[in-house]
Amino acid sequence: MSNIIYIISKEFKQIFRNKAMLPIIFLMPIVQLLILANAATFELKNIKGYIIDNDKTTVSRQIINKLLYSKYFILTGFSDNLQDGEKALLSSTADFYVSIPQNFENNIVKGNQDELLIVLNSIDGTKAMLAMAYLSAILVEFNQELLFRNSIKMIIKDQQNYSTNDIKKINLTFTHWYNNELDYKTFMVPGLIVLLVTLIGTFLSAMNIAREKEFGTIEQLNVTPIKKHQFIIGKLVPFWIIAMFELAFGLFIAYFFYRINFLGNILVIFTFASVFLVAMLGIGLFISTIAKSQQQSMFISWFFAVLFVLLSGFFSPIENMPEWIQFIAFFNPIRYFIEVNRLVLLKGAGLAEIQNHFIIISAFAIIINTLAVLRYKKTN
Amino acid sequence: MKTLLGFLRKEIYHITRDVKSLIVLFGIPIVQILIFGYAITSEIKNSDIAILDLSKDEMTLKFINKIESSGYFKIKSFFNSEKEIESEFKSGKIKIAMIIEKDFSYNLYKTKSSNIQVITDATEPNTATTLLHYIRLVLADFQSEINKNTQDPNIINTKIKMRFNEELKGVFLFVPGLITVILMLVSAMMTSISITKEKELGTMEVLLSSPIKPYHIIIAKVIPYLILSFINANIVLLIGRLVFGVPINGSLLLLELESIIFILTALSLGIMISTITSSQQVALMISLAGLMLPTMLLSGYIFPIENMPNWLQYLTYFIPARWFIVIIRGIMLKGIDLTFLWKETLVIFGFSIIFILISIKRYKVRL
User: Fold this and answer.
1) Residue B98: enclosing H or E segment and its boundaries?
2) Does some domain include residue B29?
3) Is B164 left (phi over 0), alpha (psi -120 to 50) or beta?
4) Are residues B215 and B349 in the same domain?
5) B163, B191, B223 — which closes off a domain?
6) Which of A39, A133, A339 is opposite residue B312, by nearest beta carbon?
7) Nearest-by-CA chain B residue for A291
8) CB atoms within 10 A of CB B303
9) To the nearest whole angstrom, how far is the Cα of B354 from the nearest Cα of chain A?
């Protein structure tokens, strides 16, 4: 036992002496939480639109007005030439353009078919989809108005006398639960905290042993009477403590700075994190037993970090992925912590709802650490 | 010239001997593009919905059928009471729930108006918005169906065209960004690490005291990584093209030339970092925290810049990758040329000149 404590105190001394690592341990979380939380957003606002109106009638103006009043769109230009719209898309001055053809109103009034043209820059699919959702919501509403005023002529005269005919109407009311203001930060911050804790834990522990190898100091440790498991525990505990500290810090920022309303009990989070970190540190340790140099261990951790983050549901929901990818994602520990964090913090889930997550992560922790201890050899 | 070549050989040996790092170097981009290609999709379909139907009549049955056949939703369960809704949401089983009021048909025929309530799981706001939009579409369709006899035919139809990426494939967005990230990271991070490694292990001292000219050392350090990142980027381009059909609509020559300018920017950035620090660990951390994260997050690679708050948008101006992504997306997907892209090209060119000047100023022949 005292051996372990010696190693732990040695590690802490080394960490706090390293003037380069200290700011990374303590500054990076702040920067990440402040900058990333603001940068990592798919919240769509200020969609740039361009309008080509060749009709210039009451109906076309009504449509344009409806677009103008929407809080989602900024109109960046008007024209009566289709080419201008194309050019706006190419130069990215607009994300979409709406073209109202000549004689549009006339054709509609006469009951002839005519259609609006909407062209969207769909390089970013999510954005195009949402822009389309907003646009068609406006047009659906416009059509409803047409329906209830019973005649396009009413729209033209802008008369409000709704006809009392036989139209049957279904009203739709909706509520957004758990994130009523549709704030993207509420979604991202719990995930970000997980990334922060994980990256610090895994990267630091992976580099740590590789560093001892590179400098040759591992030989000195190997010839001491310290046992294998003592060495590994002594190496892991300091990073476990640092990561738990970062978790507390992250939750603090989320609660007081971002004003996220925690519905669940944060003790559940800490309990889960304590097991999760054992698993992640085990991965770091495992990497360091494979790697020969810090550079290598950094690279390998980077490789896994990228893979884990992409398949964690952090910014792309796992349930939208194909089955075989979902199968791979099953073996991703980060994914479970992100889910737990969101379930507990945002939806108020308790231990009962996350028990499956708990079982899986415990299994991970045991397997990975067993592998790491087996691979670690005192001889070269 | 001969010393330079000899030195170059030494560097290439160094790199090719470290097989693990090489695997990672080429493996990451390939794995990433495959994941982006197969896994990351912006399409939302077959979302799990649960329905509480308090009427259970012919009309609601028809409506529920319509929802199911729309392709947007998969009916997960039918509730019996409102109390069940919360636990379904909490366990993450459903994304959206719908409550159809009692006497739905009766109200519709007698009072001409009936109600439907929708509850979404808005933890992920975009999914919630999109799902609500789908419900609206189905509802609008259903409404015009039940009003078929009384409806005025004057309805505005819309034709929607998706430009540059018709099928809304995620890879189209990510391949150009991935190339940018690779060029940046391989060039800047690897050079800075490889120079600081010589410093840390003390071999830099030996090199500097030899008759090799200091700029030879730098050139020999830089060239292998220039070639490596160039090959790496082209592999991604090729996989994108062959496996996922990501087009190169503009000029390939222009694309490669712009890439070389950008690689020079990244390399000079790497040299600059190595003049600032002397330990590998610090160089790694600077590259990671100061390069990788901003390049991935503030360049528009994953998260669109225009959604960020203003102060962050200004910050992105200082990230070279942000400009290059505009260039490469423009050439590959929009097929535009320098008439649209001269500004961005000038900016990355300017960046490399600034970095080189700083490096020259800070480079010390004695340690």
Assistant:
1) strand B96-100
2) no
3) left
4) yes
5) B163
6) A39
7) B20
8) 23
9) 25
Q: Is the ipTM of this complex over 0.85?
A: no
**Residue-level pLDDT at B331:** 93
What residues of A are in contact with residue B155 (Cβ under 8 Å)? 143, 146-147
Question: Can you tell me the mean pLDDT for B3-29?
Answer: 83
| pLDDT tens readout for residues A240-275 | 998 999 899 999 999 998 888 888 899 999 999 999
Q: Which residues of B touch A88 (CB under 8 A)?
A: none
How far is the C-alpha of B272 from the C-alpha of B352, rounded, in Å? 10
Are B104 and B177 part of one and the same domain?
Answer: no
Q: What number of other Cβ atoms are within 10 A of residue A72's Cβ?
A: 17
pLDDT of residue A269: 94
Cβ under 8 Å to A: B residues 49-108: 89-92, 108
Does the pLDDT of residue A22 top 80, yes or no?
A: no
B265 plus B298 within the same structural domain: yes
Instruction: Please give the residue range of the domain that contains residue B130.
Output: 47-163
pLDDT in tens, A186-212: 888 998 899 888 877 787 777 778 878
Residues B198 and B148 in one domain: no
Residues of chain A in contact with residue B90, where contact means CB-CB under 8 angstroms, are 343, 347-349, 353
Domain end residue (candidates: B134, B163, B192): B163
Interface of B with A in 223-242 (CB under 8 A): none
Please give the full DSSP string across A312-359, using - where no structure is assigned: TTSSS-GGGS-HHHHHHHTT-HHHHHHHHHHHHHHH---TTTTHHHHH
B285 contacts A42? CB cut-off 8 A: no
* B231 inside domain: yes
Tokens of A323: 């089955």
What is the tens place of the pLDDT at every residue in A279-333? 999 888 888 888 877 777 877 777 788 788 888 888 778 877 888 888 988 999 9
**pLDDT tops 50 at residue A164:** no
Which residues in chain B touch residue A63, judged by CB atoms under 8 angstroms apart? 156
On chain B, the residues whose CB falls within 8 A of the CB of A142 are: 156
Residues B115 and B257 occupy one common structural domain: no
For residue B137, how many other CB atoms are within 10 A of its CB? 16
Same domain, residue pair B283 and B252? yes
Could you tell me which of A230, A192, A214, A351 has the C-alpha nearest to residue A294?
Answer: A214
Could you please report the per-residue DSSP string of A31-83? HIIIIIHHHS------EEEEEEESS-SHHHHHHHHHHHH-TTEEEEEEES-HH
- What DSSP character marks residue A138? H
Q: Do A300 and B24 touch (CB under 8 A)?
A: yes
Q: Are residues B198 and B268 in the same domain?
A: yes
Which pTM was predicted?
Answer: 0.80
* Contact with chain A for residue B34, Cβ under 8 A: no
Q: Are residue B192 and residue B67 in the same domain, yes or no?
A: no
Mean pLDDT to the nearest integer, A356-379: 87
